[in-house]
Amino acid sequence: MLKKHAKFFENILFLADLAIIGLSWFFAYYIRFYSGIFSIKKGIPPFHIYFYLIIPILLIWSFVFNAFGLYRPKRVSPYLNEIFDIVKACSFSVFVLVSLTFFFRQYEFSRLVFLGFWIMGVIALSLERLIFRELLRFLRKKGFNLRYAVIVGTGRLAKDVLKRIELHPEIGLKVVGFLSRSIPSYPPFVKGGEGGLEGNTINGIPVIGTYGYIRDIIGEKDIDRVIIALPIEEHACIVELLKDIGDEMVDINVVPDLCEFMTLRGGIDELDGLPIINLQDTPLYGWNMVIKRTADIIFSILAIMITAPLILFISLLIKVTSRGPIFFQQERMGMDGKRFVAYKFRTMIENAEEQTGPVWAKEGDERRTYIGGFLRRTNLDELPQFFNVLKGDMSIVGPRPERPIFVEQFRKSIPQYMLRHKMKAGITGWAQVNGWRGNTSIDKRIEYDLYYIENWSLMFDIKIILMTIWRGFKNAY
């Protein structure tokens, strides 16, 4: 019955997609030729020429959307992933359509119609999927369109799986019970029973049997999904379990007991069909890298242009008030542990570390020049680092770069310290706008840096930039 319901919703979504695709095509034609927004030099083409294309359009979009998996169940898939899939599918479909119309040499179709069709299709389909998700979420919270699951395992990992499922009722999964390796003093499975084995419950969910009776339980309880969440020491049982249920009409998920080793953006990847578990990774790959680098170039050029008069004035002020170079150059450690030379305005006397050695700057530091204290308090000494960003050594937003000598000290005493180097170093960062800068807690700074890397997005970067402009840095000596 549940699978029939799933097919019903899939058909509804498919028909809604076709309707939106068709309307987007006709609306793109109307906008181009009848809205008055665009000039018309060669006259308005007859509508029937564009109308005849609707059949190949619907066929192409139907095939491509199926190929891109847009009609598979999305209960545990993020909405942003679905939008990205829609963009890819629509882009590929438009490419196929344009290629197809190229062979109709007797008539030239408007490129603006194709562009408008692509834009409206992506927006409308994304909104439709959002509405569809919210509708299903509402129905599932009310107890409709549920799928029933059993969790194999009763340990920490199994409890964590249950907790996460219960935190997201919108995905429509209802756990009917747990399976244990053995349950002393209790029968392995009570056929036809409504509850579990008396006295054996986990967070209110009953333990309904043992691994060996999984086939009986699937049939008796009408299970749709089996979630295997066993500790490492019981992984040998997975082979036997999969042999038992390999031909059952259920979805099977295996949750590896490696969560404690996943430190930074861990997840599942794929290599030519082979699943690979990532214990730690960087968010900067593919389009993410292109987006962040493009934003860095744009922001750094704008910042240099806006602050150019201030940079020249500060340079002149440093030159006439103290001996030594205008800029201070120092080796720092950046992304993947690579070293680079960071630029700052010089705020201390020349050769300030000849007697003290490498030390942290502190409040009231006697090594500062006449205007050095002001530059550090206002963070104006950081302005030359926009050139580091333009070169590609740094980013506008990221963990602050540290000197290699201090990095070697911290990595020995602070767990996960080196993970902050999975992201390009930044002029400002999540830790800095929250006050963890300079001579403050390194542990808290790492906590905030890792949170930033785990949750990176372009909007998060923009938020930090705006917070920096509004609040400024704190604890700068």
Tell me what the structure shows.
By secondary structure, the protein is α/β, with parallel strands linked by helices. The chain folds into three domains: 2-141, no CATH class; 147-257, NAD(P)-binding Rossmann-like Domain (Rossmann fold, 3-Layer(aba) Sandwich), CATH 3.40.50.720; 287-471, no CATH class. It is built from 16 helices and twelve strands. The chain has helices at 2-34, 47-51, 54-67, 79-101, 111-141, 156-167, 214-221, 236-245, 287-321, 353-356, 372-377, 385-391, 404-413, 430-433, 442-454, 458-471, and strands at residues 147-152, 173-180, 201-202, 205-210, 225-228, 251-254, 267-271, 274-278, 327-333, 339-345, 395-397, 426-428. A hairpin with a 2-residue loop joins strand 7 (267-271) and strand 8. It starts with a helix and ends in a 6-residue tail after the last helix. Residues 1-5 and 184-199 have low confidence and may be disordered.
Secondary-structure blueprint:
Layout: H1 2-34, H2 47-51, H3 54-67, H4 79-101, H5 111-141, E1 147-152, H6 156-167, E2 173-180, E3 201-202, E4 205-210, H7 214-221, E5 225-228, H8 236-245, E6 251-254, E7 267-271, E8 274-278, H9 287-321, E9 327-333, E10 339-345, H10 353-356, H11 372-377, H12 385-391, E11 395-397, H13 404-413, E12 426-428, H14 430-433, H15 442-454, H16 458-471
Parallel strand pairs: 1-2, 1-5, 2-4, 5-6, 11-12
Antiparallel strand pairs: 3-4, 7-8, 9-10
Helix pairs in contact: 1-3, 1-5, 3-4, 4-5, 9-12
